[in-house]
Write a structure and sequence with these properties.
Uridine Diphospho-n-acetylenolpyruvylglucosamine Reductase, domain 3, 6 helices, Uridine Diphospho-n-acetylenolpyruvylglucosamine Reductase, domain 2, NADP, about 25% strand, Uridine Diphospho-n-acetylenolpyruvylglucosamine Reductase, domain 1, FAD, about 290 residues, flavoprotein, peptidoglycan synthesis, 3 domains, alpha+beta, UDP-N-acetylmuramate dehydrogenase activity, five-stranded antiparallel beta sheet
Length: about 290
């Protein structure tokens, strides 16, 4: 397959394990790391003209890739990291690390991203799933986004034109986020840094960061905790194949050695069935299973 005009890195037959924080997945037929928004447009047009499957990923921190791999083109945004800081504002491309942006905002005395200091994903991924932690969400600092629509048009949308929910945004599945503008509140650098340090300490204490994982697997039910329900149901430390419920946190599934997507899916379904039978609660997944 020829991708004329693409200066970014292009590789064939790439292990998806290397693109996933879970270290799970088969082989991606083509992987492209574009260097500009213009290249993103070219990739989209090429895929439509040639009728080739295409999908967008960032750091793979909230994704489960299939064991059979992915056909077509997998676009990785991590080379798209341009950022321009203003007075309590930021314009950044979608591949920027949201944790790094939180750190930089804090060093400038800009408040609003403290919750994101430990989130391992990209800005684009954080927006499309309305990432949150410690009582904060990305929608709270979002001002507007630049999007490549399903029709191949670039549009700029204000926050008011979007709908957000718990780990949800109306942009999911409706084009690609290319860049965003964030607005912050002025704050004291020392206070902001202290809050981020506290958030990181809580994360380290409560989460199994030493093993490959994809963050929280299930969304918290209204007024309840998925992790608490899973722990009460007796799932901590139990697993299927190489996938295991973390002994440290019930809402994390860790890869303890050569876990497959089939292992993870089977474990998720077993937990869902058991929790529903015991407590009448339907657990919905927060992680996204990506298929061709």
């Amino acid at each position: 397959m020829l991708l004329n005009g693409i200066e970014g890195r292009i590789e064939k037959n790439v292990s998806l394990k290397n693109l996933s924080t879970w270290r799970i997945g088969g082989t991606a037929e083509w992987v492209v790391w574009p260097k500009s928004v213009a290249e993103m447009e070219k990739l989209w047009r090429f895929s439509q003209q040639e009728n080739i499957p295409i999908r967008l990923i960032g750091r793979g921190s909230n994704l489960l890739f299939p064991d059979e791999g992915l056909k077509g083109i997998t676009v990785v945004t991590t080379s798209l990291t341009s950022e321009v800081w203003g007075e309590c504002s930021l314009q950044a491309e979608m591949g920027c690390s949201v944790a790094r942006l939180a750190q930089e905002a804090g060093e400038k005395g800009f408040s609003g991203l403290e919750f994101a200091r430990g989130i391992p994903g990209t800005l684009g991924g954080a927006i499309v799933m309305n990432a949150g932690a410690h009582g904060g969400e990305i929608q709270n600092v979002l001002y507007k986004v630049m999007v490549l629509t399903e029709e191949g048009q670039i549009e700029t949308l204000s926050k008011e034109e979007l709908t957000f929910g718990y780990r949800e945004c109306s942009l999911r599945g409706k084009g690609w986020i290319l860049a965003a503008e964030l607005k912050f509140k002025p704050g004291k650098i020392e206070t902001i840094k202290a809050q981020m340090a506290e958030n990181l300490a809580k994360r380290k204490a409560a989460q199994p960061l030493e093993l490959p994982n994809a963050g929280s697997v299930f969304r918290n039910p209204p007024g309840d905790s998925a992790g608490k329900l899973i722990e009460q149901a007796g799932w901590k430390g139990k697993g299927i194949g190489g996938a295991q419920v973390a002994s440290k946190h019930g809402n994390f599934i860790v890869n303890v050695g050569n876990a497959t997507a089939a292992d993870v899916l089977a474990l998720i379904q077993a937990i869902q069935r058991d929790v529903f039978e015991k407590y009448g609660v339907e657990l919905r997944t927060e992680v996204h299973y990506m298929t061709s």
